[in-house]
Design brief:
Chain lengths: ~120, ~110
């Protein structure tokens, strides 16, 4: 059974940093691109970006709203993906989900999400 | 990359059919078959209900169907049921090697 579990969310001041983790199981993690999607309270979904597999050189892509502040990484030995968030802004407050495309070109598995609150 | 355009809300009575549109550009919806739809109940993670314009994942009711014409994709739900009341989002791959979601549509079953 595929499982994705995010952790690391919490309260941080504007300008601060936070690192989220996404622990994966039930599939070949090392072969999978890992995507991050966020959702502010009462708002829609926003694709944050993704990190590809080793065979794709761990290529990353970022939404314009986070480029230069957020960084994706992964540890295939731990089956865990990471999202390092620096220079956080109040508008980064959201639930952050990790998600994958497994059986089709669509995000077919999601974690439960972790809440990040940026506030003074 | 601007969000895809969806109606903010739609409604229908049990048993009826509704259609939600998702309008983009030739750089996203119109240029690729990688259009998907998600159902999200309050407080839950999104659930994939349509991938690649019209493919239904295993376990998804055949009351859900997808299509695309030009720069607009559509999700149709037939035989509306109370459990279908949720938010629905479209998503598309883009020419910028990124993914973009629609703004979301709240479905109310009357």
């Amino acid at each position: 059974e595929v499982q994705l579990v995010e952790s690391g969310g919490g309260l941080v001041q504007p300008g601060g940093s936070l690192k989220l983790s996404c622990a994966a199981s039930g599939f070949t993690f090392s072969d999978s691109a890992m995507h991050w999607v966020r959702q502010a309270s009462g708002k829609g979904l926003e694709w944050v970006g993704r990190i590809r597999s080793r065979s794709n050189n761990y290529a990353t892509a970022y939404a314009a709203s986070v480029r230069g502040r957020f960084t994706f990484s992964r540890d295939d030995s731990k089956k865990t993906a990471y999202l390092q968030m620096n220079g956080l802004k109040t508008e980064d407050t959201a639930v952050y989900y990790c998600t994958i495309m497994r059986a089709s070109v669509g995000f077919d598995f999601w974690g439960p999400g972790t809440l990040v609150t940026v506030s003074s | 990359q601007s969000a895809l355009t969806q109606p903010a809300s739609v409604s229908g009575s049990p048993g009826q059919s509704i259609t939600i549109s998702c309008t983009g550009t030739s750089s996203d919806v119109g240029g690729y078959v990688y259009v998907s739809w998600y159902q999200q109940h309050s407080g839950k993670a999104p659930k994939l209900i349509i991938s690649e314009v019209s493919n239904r994942p295993s376990g998804v009711s055949d009351r859900f169907s997808g299509s695309k014409s030009g720069n607009t994709a559509s999700l149709t739900i037939s035989g509306l049921q109370a459990e279908d009341e949720a938010d629905y989002y479209c998503n598309s791959y883009t020419s910028s090697n990124s993914w973009v979601f629609g703004g979301g549509t709240k479905l109310t079953v009357l």
